[in-house]
Amino acid sequence: MIIIPQEYQDLELSKPEKVFISLIKNKLDSNSYMVLKVNPVGENSVNVLILPRGVCFLETVLFEDISIVKSMISLLMMMKQKVEEKLYNKLLIHRYFNIKSNENIFLKFPFSYKFYLPAISKDVLLNVLTSPNEREFAEKYCLFSEYKTMISSSIEDFVDLLLANPSYPYSADWQSFDNESINILIHLIAPEYTIPRITEYKYDTVVEGKTTSKFSNQDYAIKPGDLTVDVLRLDDDQINIINNIKKGHQLILACAGSGKSVLLISKCFKVASLHPDKQFLITCKNRNLSNLYDWRINVAGFRNRNVKCCTFDKLCQDLLAEVGIPFQMSDFERTFQKAREALIKGKITRRFYGIFIDEIQIFKSEWYEFCYNLLESHVPENYFFTICGDKSQDIVANIKQGNAPWQGNPNLPKYTGRSIRIEKNYRNTIQINSFVDRFTQNAKVYFRKLGIDMEMNEDLFLRGKAFRNGPKPEVILTDRFNEAQEVINKVLYLKEERNIPLSEIAVLFYYRQYVPESYYIYKWLKDKLNIYYLEYSELISTDESYGVLYGDRRGLSLCTIESSLGLDFQAIIICGLKSLGAYYKTKNISTFSGDIEELEQYKEDFYKNINTLYTACTRARDYLYIILTEDRDKSIYSRLLLDSINE
């Protein structure tokens, strides 16, 4: 079952409702939906079960006193009739759901409105009711405490019960909902979770004697009335940004937490809806980020068939598979070279009208060029090519000698005058944002000492303005033998004292292990989590065939910093930093000497490690903890973090 919203811990759900969700969610497959705590007709809050065969609106009544419930039955009967009529009229207005017969209009599918009384036994209530109408109402339209047993023993019988006794007629030919009708239905009952199809406003023009339909710039603009804006909670500044993404090439530079990924999704699907006959691509390098895209798209109701969303690795594989060229999934570099060669030779023929690339800073320049060459046209008025990134999150060191992947090639687009900077931070609290800002400013001092010229680069370490307050970040100094336990202590504190769900906690580490120093932080973490019976998911790989998908994770997330790119969590615990700078011996600035070649390697590693820490810290929305096993004298990275936390 798909639950909307997926993270529902902050909703005002009663304990019986949470139990109900827990019981039913694993009994039904992904063709069923449960939309929580919505108010579709302005009356009472309900939970809505969308099942293949029909829909049930379920209102929870929490009274435990049988005498009170007895006195309420007549009120519930009136409420049901009133709300059902409003729901019926609301559902009936959409042409997708109504059907005509003998001048009458009625719904295609059955729906019911029922009351859930989790503290009341059916037999007890029936024994105190004397009116036949009230007894009939209780039997037909109420669910009682006994139905927890029915859910566990026979979900089919329970579904029959939910959909039994619909008050309004429906089509005898009704079979089930498809994807499109699910989206429309959710739009009608919970518009905050959906993005409707965009109406195509066209104007006709005559070209060489032929009338053709064209779109104006106004058509590409997202308006405050578009539900796209409402669903993704975009503010006025974000609306302005996506409306500034015009045809041709566009570069969006933004700090971590600025919502650039949301903007890409919104703009891509807006344009795709205006051009249903064209193909569009959303791509990135990180598998977890791509899966997050899929999750957001599914929850938002995007179903456009002309949009392909995948990692760059998967894109290369799919392009080769389409033309029958074999490849090895385990050898990406070889796969990419095959795809590149096939594209040059014209064997790959698929083209896209619009391409949107996220986290472009971790693309190699040749990957970026490959994507550009997948456009069906290179005439600016005939394509959308939008790239989005943050130079400060170049955690794989693809920015060489100051040139980002989109810079340095004279044959590719130049973004002078075509770049947008986002100056708001929607993710991090003021306290986390200030800490990261101090950290980056302190790091720049060492950049200057090492001769790393970053001051001239205005796009490095962009820091947007944050708006939410929260607790101060913490840096905990311990030793390697107690590091995993310190992580557990923070997890338990967040879970038990701050009521943070495990699914909103992520533990990030640099490498899973560093064998030269017998440092196996990943294994130690898993051992401790198992001892404390804490559920976790492993989001540690960018490989398409390995690891848990973002949407399938359970419990807290274990993730390398690299694999966390593009993700965020309410609480982040960073550990495993002992291996940071160990290989190239960049922990101590006094070692930055020797021949020029070695010094350049030191500089590159130091710069990459600062970006890595920046990326890790900016994953946190509200809580940030950093566990260190080396003091300021043993590691320059520890010194920077400790100095930044203490200012």
Description:
It is globular, with a radius of gyration of 28 Å. Helix 5 (147-153) packs across helix 6 (155-163), helix 13 (312-322) packs across helix 14 (332-344) and helix 17 (483-497) packs across helix 18 (521-531). With 647 residues, it is an alpha/beta fold. 37% of the residues lie in helices and 18% in strands. It has 20 helices and 22 strands. The protein has a six-stranded mixed β-sheet with strand order 1-2-3-4-7-8, with helices on both faces. The model is unreliable at 195-213, 224-233 and 299-303 (pLDDT under 50). A hairpin with a 2-residue loop joins strand 9 and strand 10.
Helix and strand topology:
Layout: E1 2-4, H1 15-24, E2 33-38, E3 46-51, E4 54-60, H2 66-92, E5 98-101, E6 104-107, E7 111-117, H3 122-128, H4 132-141, E8 142-144, H5 147-153, H6 155-163, H7 179-189, E9 203-207, E10 210-214, H8 217-220, H9 227-231, H10 236-243, E11 248-254, H11 260-274, E12 280-284, H12 287-300, E13 307-311, H13 312-322, H14 332-344, E14 354-357, H15 365-372, E15 384-389, E16 419-422, H16 430-450, E17 474-477, H17 483-497, E18 505-509, H18 521-531, E19 536-538, E20 556-560, E21 569-575, H19 596-617, E22 620-628, H20 636-646
Unreliable stretches covering 5 or more consecutive residues: 195-213, 224-233, 299-303
Q: Which structural class should the secondary elements be placed in?
A: alpha/beta
Arithmetic mean of pLDDT: 82
Approximate strand percentage? 15-25%
List keywords for this structure.
single chain, 647 residues, alpha/beta, 37% helix
